[in-house]
Amino acid sequence: MGKKLVIVTCITCPQSCAIELVKTKDDYEVSGNKCKKGKEYAIQEVTNPMRSITTTVKTIFKDFPRLPVKTDKEIPLNDTFLFMEEINSVLVKERLKPGDIVLKGIRNMDINLVATFGL
Amino acid sequence: MLITQKWDVIVIGGGPAGLAAAISAHDQGAKTCIIEREERLGGILKQCIHDGFGLVTFKEKLTGPEYAWRYIEQANERNVPVFLNSFVMDLKKEGNIFKLSLINSKEGAFYLSAPAIVLAMGCRERTAKQVFIHGTRPAGVFTAGLAQYFINIQGHMPTKKCVILGSGDIGLIMARRLTLEGATVHGVYEILPEPSGLTRNVVQCLQDYCIPLHLNTTVAKVHGKNRVEGVTINSVKNFKPIPGTEKYIDCDALIVSVGLIPENEIIEPLNVPIDPKTRGPFVDQNLMTMFDGIFSCGNALHVNDLVDYVSESGNIAGSNAANFAKENLQKRNLIPVTPKDNILYVVPQYVDLNQKSEVVIFFRSSRTLRDVKLKVYSDGNNYISKKYKVVRPPEMERIILNLSKVPSNISEINIELKGE
To answer: Under an 8 A CB cutoff, do B66 and A117 touch?
Structure first.
């Protein structure tokens, strides 16, 4: 049986490396990446793709109706819309700063939603 | 109340370029202020809530607002004065001093003057009216940046089901954003045979959400009376629609992402020479335009693809504006940097040979090329040779030219890309 080749475009930085993966017995042979992060990304991508979510949440402030936020860790890509559902229920009532936690433990996981701009 | 405040450097625009310019001008000891027409600093980064900013400068992946915040904090720490909600009405030169007429709702009309001006107005989007689309002109035709403003700043959804025209990065990012917020993006349509945005954005914005990308296809016609009801798409060959390939798509909005244009109307009355290729002013390595005392940076100079380079240019323009204000730089010995084979444009377009420092040069290739050699030369002298595996017009390239290697008596420097 021929070895299966997978090509993954790295999204870690704008260089967009085309990384080739060949499955070996219990690991992957990785080539085409220009840095270490590329190898990690490519293996993660073919096993369980992960992404950060960046979005906005509602605030009570007329002069600042939306606060931009992000998850402080990457989440499984396939669960994106489940996370969005919980994130969309948030209403910000305080003048937060970047890095402040907006929502702790999303979906009962060790992942927080943090502000990315100051109100 | 009629006031005229005297400054050393006035920075027009409080986005990433203007912030960096004001910070570096201030740090050079110049009395500096920023003029911003919006109610807060940060420019377009305020609405670019996605991440991927600042990898070059901070070695970490920041969102647009986080990147802007770092510079806003730096400006605040230095107490750089900012005129918010203020609009420049007129810019003229009297003797060696520039006089700006401005308005805002607090002061009414007011006046500022300085011997050096930094232009950091950024760019704006080409609109649907600047590309050729037939049909009616109903509500529901938005530029991608406007749709982004509605969603990310105001919290309004501009569409339930839409078509995106143009595969530039903003179009791709908006395809993901709209999908994430519950809209259906029918597809992204690109007239060219390849996507104009970065490959990583095609992957993480379209493929992640199974949004189709249709190349060699364009929107030919908009339908609807009061609101967009649908669009007709058309396959294209050599920019000409192929008859019989028309297809109707039901949608309530057309989002266009068809390019950016530097915003330089403010300097039109001064006749500052503009490069027709970049649509920004011609500059030298200090980012001074052909008009002594006027500096340009960021996307007002040329449309950048990384904000890191926008800040870098702001930094260069700001510190040189401060030096100019203090001692009026010596007379320049300008020679052109001429784009030759396969080079779309070069910034700066001139270098001042009276200075022997290192110069940051940006260029874009005029088409996608593989295994090419970059050459920077003048008759008989070769300054830079560099190999590239691939160069693409959407991806700006940055090189450093050391002017101490360049003789003072040459008449131009050439830059070319050639196959090996």
So the answer is: yes
Q: DSSP letter string over B160-228? A: SEEEEE--SHHHHHHHHHHHHTT-EEEEEE-SSSS-SS-HHHIIIIIGGGT--EETTEEEEEEE-SSB-
- State the architecture of B1-125+260-326 in CATH terms: 3-Layer(bba) Sandwich (3.50)
Question: What percent of chain B clears pLDDT 70, i.e. is strictly above it?
Answer: 98
Check if B200 contacts A (Cβ < 8 Å): yes
Q: CB B198 to CB A66 under 8 A?
A: no
CATH architecture of B127-258: 3-Layer(bba) Sandwich (3.50)
The nearest CA of chain B is from the CA of A35 a distance in Å of: 13
**Which chain B residue has its CA at the smallest distance from A114's CA?**
B66
**pLDDT tens track for B255-270:** 999 889 999 999 999 9
> A116 vs B65: CB contact, 8 Å cut-off?
yes
Look up tokens 């200090």; give the residue: B286
> Which residues in chain A are contacts of B69 at CB distance < 8 A?
98, 116-118
Instruction: Check CB contact under 8 Å for B39 and A98.
Output: no
Tens of pLDDT, residues B231-243: 999 999 988 889 9
Q: Considering just the CA atoms, what is the radius of gyration of chain B in Å?
A: 23
CA distance readout (Å), B100 to B194, B291, B292, B327: 44, 16, 16, 21
Numbered ranges of CATH 3.50.50.60 in chain B: 1-125+260-326, 127-258
